[in-house]
Amino acid sequence: MYHIVRYLGERYDLDLVAPTLEGVEEAENLVGKVCSDMEFVTPSSGGVLRRVIRVSPYVKDPALVYAVRRRLETRAYSAVQVEKPAMLPYLPKDLSMPIILDTWAYGLAGPLRALRHEAGILTRARNLLQLIRFSIFDAFCWPDTSCILVVSEEDRIRCQQERPGRKVLVIPNGFDCSAVRPGTPRDEEPPVVLFTGDMGFLPNVDAALFLACRIFPEIRRVHPNAELRLVGRNPDPRLRNLSGSRSGITVTGAVEDMVPYLHAATVYVAPHFTGAGTRTKLLEAMAAGLAIVTTSIGIEGIEASHDQEVVIANDRSSLIAAILRLLGNPQERIRLGNAARRLMEERYDWSRCLAPLESLYAGLLPKKVISC
Question: Is 288 exposed, middle or buried, given 0-12, 13-18 or 19+ CB atoms closer than 10 A?
Fold first, then answer.
């Protein structure tokens, strides 16, 4: 979101309204100079009953509702850009100005995969309820939009099939390639398998547990001194319990700088079978020139090809075989890493990804744009 805010703020008078979440100080430092005004709203303490009986899949915070509506009623904006459908409930129903919706991950693929993947009656019942909520919201609660932003051509086709007549624009997720450069190819022992991300986010937890419990033990049979590093904030307790010198697994928690971990890795592995949308961590690993093993779901939204820029494997045995092949072949790792970096520079650097927004907003009267 930071890169979109910066891109729009450099071209228009931009006001930013957002809930107060982790990283607000960093956000203020990053985008404060490009926003005309910023307002971070502390969520009000909502009652448990309101959360339980709601029909919407999203919690609607009264304090943020008030902040958004107060601005829309008192200031002259030309458009509203909404980041994620979760923010749609904060818009007044009678809003007459253009609405641009940035979906991040279009459709119900994420909830559907969670329903199919999770075991246990209570978990499946919770996922089914959430899927029903998302379905109702998507069918009946979206406002008229001037444009829907999606991250891939597949999402564009699906969106236009489900919402005929709506304007849909592909804005791929990107990465600042200047922020991460490839390191020196690593060939020394021990081999290091890396997985990164928010380790409290359920699709990442699922992938990390699968990697640590179902895949990594087989890697250690061939490479007894191999290490697995799970790097990212908010590690789930189940992941913390895996960490230890005897297991070869390190769970770091939050780190100030991801680059040293990327440069120390031999292979990057992202065995995702749940979740949806483009995973920025894959783009980061590609920018770092790492050899990557992932799944078809893991690489969604990125036009990378199997055995050209990444290795794609969709079951446990194939994932194990792919990792072992790359651990034993330094030249293949270098080839894949170079190709991944090249693809990032040519297609997924933010300077290229955001260019279509220029023509989109050229058709709007550029008084002010509010992002929420």
Answer: buried
- pLDDT digits over 193-213, tens only? 999 999 999 899 999 999 999
What tokens appear for 2 in the block? 């930071």
* Rounded Cα distance, 211 and 270, in Å: 8
Strand 14-19 and strand 311-312: the pairing is unpaired
Helix and strand numbers, DSSP H then E, in the chain:
16, 13
The structure's pTM equals: 0.84
Question: For position 328, what pLDDT does the model report?
Answer: 95
**Residue 208 is part of which domain span?**
177-348
| Number of domains the chain is built from | 1
Say if 120 falls within a structural domain: no
Low-confidence ranges of the chain (pLDDT < 50): 48-49
Contact present, 284 and 196 (Cβ < 8 Å): yes
Domain CATH code at residue 230: 3.40.50.2000
What's phi and psi for 275, nearest 5 deg?
A: 85, 175
- What pLDDT is stored for residue 276 in this prediction? 78
Using alpha carbons, select from 261, 278, 196, 285 the residue that is nearest to residue 235: 196
pLDDT at 49: 46
